[in-house]
Write a structure and sequence with these properties.
Protein name: Alkylhydroperoxidase
GO molecular function: peroxiredoxin activity
Keywords: Oxidoreductase, Peroxidase
Number of helices: 8
InterPro entries: AhpD-like, AhpD_core, CMD-like
CATH architecture: Up-down Bundle
Largest sheet: none
Number of strands: 0
Organism: Micromonospora sicca
Structural class: mainly alpha
Length: about 150
């Protein structure tokens, strides 16, 4: 399989400027980088975006994530590797990514649990980062942007 075209965001410089501003804003609100990387990875796994799963795992490793936690992200509920705050962020990530899966896309119990661990500025960052991740997942899946195949 090959990409259908270059990533649309890369083809339009003004789009990348806007995306970079969203990235900067989401990463400046005080949410730990590892938490942002974990939710990026989980949303990308759900959406089947190989490029973002690859970049998410690499980014998480660079931010200090362990292999054990990275391997367990898809099964975060069944492991003891994640803090309560990370679990709340991962639950929010899944709900915000699977909007059509339930009548109330982000139920109060998911939102309230996230709000127990993050203040409004941090919640804004989580929601913006999830929206940006889902945006990239859709661009990449539509145009078949693939993870690099440079394995040894």
């Amino acid at each position: 399989m090959k990409a259908r075209m270059q990533n649309p965001a890369m083809m339009l410089p003004d789009a990348m400027k806007a995306i970079n501003l969203l990235y900067k804003a989401a990463h400046s609100a005080g949410v730990p980088t590892t938490t942002l990387e974990l939710i990026h990875l989980r949303a990308s796994q759900i959406n089947g975006c190989s490029a973002c799963v690859d970049s998410g795992a690499r980014g998480a490793r660079k931010a200090g994530e362990t292999e054990e936690r990275l391997f367990a992200v898809a099964a975060w509920r069944e492991t003891s590797y994640f803090t309560d705050a990370e679990r709340a962020a991962l639950a929010l990530a899944e709900a915000a990514t699977r909007l059509a899966d339930r009548a109330d896309p982000v139920p109060d119990e998911i939102w309230d649990e996230a709000a127990r661990h993050f203040d409004e500025k941090e919640l804004a960052a989580l929601v913006l980062w999830l929206a940006t991740t889902n945006f990239f997942n859709r661009l990449n899946a539509t145009t078949r942007q693939l993870a690099p195949q440079n394995w040894g």
